[in-house]
Amino acid sequence: MPVTGIGGVFLRSRDPQARAAWYGEHLGIDAGQTAVWRQSAGDTVFAPMPLDDDYFAADQPLMLNLRVSGIDALIASLESAGIPVETRAEWDGEYGRFARIHDPEGLPIELWEPPAEDV
């Protein structure tokens, strides 16, 4: 196959600079049109979903899923910054651990820490 991975994620924004700064401050992502984020190798899921699927809010066209390490420390950092973090026991299991947040413009973000043997 000619496609080897995702080369970028481009989001329309009311305030691109503020949104990029939020991703940098809270998630450590160097964001912006001239920024290049070199990421670790790992699994990526590309999944078109039915319009009525309830995996994430129906009013959002997509959810960003980010692989993370140290999810407990990240959750604590986000919560201390006043960012609501949702966790559910049923989300954690065979595929790792999950938490959800929203960026400043409401985009749902799923934080995913793969099982230790997959990292």
Under CATH, the homologous superfamily of the domain at 43-118 reads: 2,3-Dihydroxybiphenyl 1,2-Dioxygenase, domain 1
What fraction of the residues are assigned to beta strands by DSSP?
5-15%
Profile the largest sheet. Answer: 3 strands, mixed
Report the end-to-end length measured between terminal Cα atoms: 24 Å
CATH architecture heading of the domain at 43-118 = Roll
InterPro entries: Glyas_Bleomycin-R_OHBP_Dase (IPR029068), Glyoxalase_6 (IPR041581), VOC_core (IPR037523)
Organism: Leifsonia virtsii
Protein name: VOC family protein
Please characterize this protein's 3D structure.
Residues 5-114 form the VOC domain. There is one protein chain. A 3-stranded mixed β-sheet has the order 1-3-2, with no helix packed on it. The radius of gyration is 15 Å and the shape is globular. By secondary structure, it is of the alpha+beta class. The chain has helices at 16-27, 71-80; strands spanning 64-67, 97-102, 108-113.
Helices and strands in order, then pairings?
Layout: H1 16-27, E1 64-67, H2 71-80, E2 97-102, E3 108-113
Parallel strand pairs: 1-3
Antiparallel strand pairs: 2-3
